[in-house]
Automatic annotation (TrEMBL):
The keyword Lyase does not apply. CDD domains: carb_red_sniffer_like_SDR_c (cd05325). SUPFAM superfamilies: NAD(P)-binding Rossmann-fold domains. This is Short-chain dehydrogenase. One of its GO terms (cellular component) is cytoplasm. InterPro entries: Fungal_SecMetab_SDRs, NAD(P)-bd_dom_sf, SDR_fam. Keywords: NADP, Oxidoreductase. Belongs to the short-chain dehydrogenases/reductases (SDR) family. Coiled coil: none annotated. One of its GO terms (molecular function) is oxidoreductase activity.
Amino acid sequence: MSTRPSLHCLVTGANRGIGLEFTRQLLERGDRVTATCRHPGRATALNALAAEHPGRLHVLPLDITDAKSRAELVRELPLVGGDVDLLINNAGVLHSGERFGHLTAGNFEDSFRTNALGPLLLTQALAPHLAAGAKVVNLSSVLGSVGSVDGFHTPSYAVSKAALNMVTALLAQALAEQHLTVLAFHPGWVMTDMGGDGAQLPATDAVAAMLRVVDAATPADNGRFLNRRGEPMPW
Ligand code: NDP
C-alpha cells in the first residue's frame, strides 16, 4: 500500500473530457479534488462523482476567462481544502472550420482569452495558495508547437496554444523561487468532444500516462513541454 500523502488538486474544465478523467483518476488514487467548471448545476458526471467520494470532491464554478469568477474561486478555496498541491489548467476551446482568406478576430480573441490568458491569470491569482513543492500542469498541444507545424490547421487554437507555451515558460520563471514545477503537455489525440472523429487515444490512457510523468517530475523539470510519455516536445 502506498504511503503517499493525499494531494489537494484543482482542475479546470472538469465537467467533461480530459478534465473529468483527471478528476476521476485523482479521486480513485485517494487525492482531494476541487473540480471547476462553468455550470456546476449541469455537470451530471461530476456531481455523480461527488456523491461517490463525499468530502473529497468539491465542485465550484469557474469561467476561466472571467476575472470575477477567478477571484470568487480564490476566495472560496480555504473553505474546500486550502493550498493546492497540483493545479491542472485543462479548460480549453478549439474553433474548427477556420480557413485562410476568411479569418476574423473573434475566434483568435476567444481562444487567446481561454487557452492562454485564462491559465496565466488563474495561476497568478492562485500563486499565494500553491503549496510548497506544488506542480502546475498546462494542457497544451502539438498544434501549438512552432517546430511541429505541418499545414494550416486550426490557426486560432494553434496561436493560442503557442502563447500557452510561452505562458508556461514565463510561469516557470515566476514560480521558480517557490520551488514549484510548471509543465506543458501534449496529451496525444484524445477521444473527447474536442478530439472528435479520428482520435483513437482513450482519455483514461492519456491521463494515466500524464499523471505518471507529473508524479515523477521535480523542480529540475520546471518549464518543460512534454508529451504524455515525458519526452520533450519541440517548442
Ligand atoms: P473538451 O472540448 O472535451 O472539453 C473542454 C473543457 O474546457 C470543457 O469542460 C469546457 O467546459 C471547458 N471550457 C471551455 N471554455 C471554458 C471557459 N471559458 N471556462 C471554463 N471552462 C471552459 O476538450 P478536451 O477534454 O479534449 O481538452 C482538454 C484540454 O486538452 C484542452 O486544453 C485541449 O486544448 C487540450 N488538448 C486536447 C486534445 C485532444 O485530442 N482532445 C489534444 C491536445 C490538447 P464547457 O463544457 O462548459 O464547454
